[in-house]
Task: structure prediction
Amino acid sequence: MTRGSMQYWQKRRAYRRLPRLRTIPKSKHAPLLFNIIGYKAGMSHLMAIDEAAKGIEVSRACTIVEIPNIEVYGIRLYSINRKTGYKYVAKEVYNKEAAQKAGIKKTKNDDTKLEAIKGKLNEFVEITALLAAYPKGIATGQHHVDKFESQIMGNTINEKFDYITKLLGKEIKAHDMFKNGEHIDITSVSKGKGWQGPIKRFGTARLFHKATQKTRHVAPLGSFGMGRVVYGVPQAGQTGYNYRTEHNKKIMKIGKKEETGSINPKSGFMNYGMVTNDYIVIDGSIVGPAKRLVRIRKSISYDDKSVKEPKITFIATTNKGI
Result:
């Protein structure tokens, strides 16, 4: 009787806009930030040379994600509780100016204490970066700062510490982390559809009206003597607005804000507007509606041994919906 993928059970609403990331790949390369965030502007299409198809020019759908101004305002260090075995936040170090700009009021620990912490790195098991995204000037209409945490890819905690201390209080750009042609993972929240019945929610078959006097419902909810309804029975409920991750999406182009004229339609993207900041053009579609917060991370399953930059010949700037 159960329809739909049990992988995504339960079908409940996401409890926050910013999804969290639980997996980080083991990196053999130099230390690097793991993820950044952006805002989905809309879709378009482009023409590119496909080397796998003997150099034929092909048409591909693409999605434009606008990247806000992102700054590193702090460092977070984790230790392990010997009694429970769980990690906990042992220390946080802030850059005062960047932290106050991000809205952090408690800035007692500033970056002048980094030298003292460097000699005690053996007490910590993990180090992460605290970042703030400033969407001011972006067409989402959002004014509050999006604060998020990014793990650091690397081999040793000393390498990670030296890497992140150099970035503390500085701005992060998309081209500092990713390359054209690289494969990435996209994590976001899908489009919400509200309260829906079992047919739209699970795709169950319609019943004959003559048999049950109803068509768009589930007839048996389980065995007669059980006394309860098991969770696998399709029933009405919240549909959409779920966490979803799409793996191995290809970056077609990383553009700067001076190059937005090459992607912006004359009337702007539908339900979004004009892209005015740095952006990333991603091959294919991604989850969520326009203005949705998107988390972009390094691919955890695709090994880009040799990244080849796509040869884009044309990007459409016409909006068919207007």
Notes: Residues 69-172 form a domain with the Ribosomal Protein L3; Chain: B; domain 2, fold (CATH 3.30.1430.10). Helices lie at 96-101, 114-118, 157-167, 174-177, 198-202, 209-212. The CA atoms of residues 70 and 173 lie 7 Å apart. The first helix runs from residue 96 to 101.
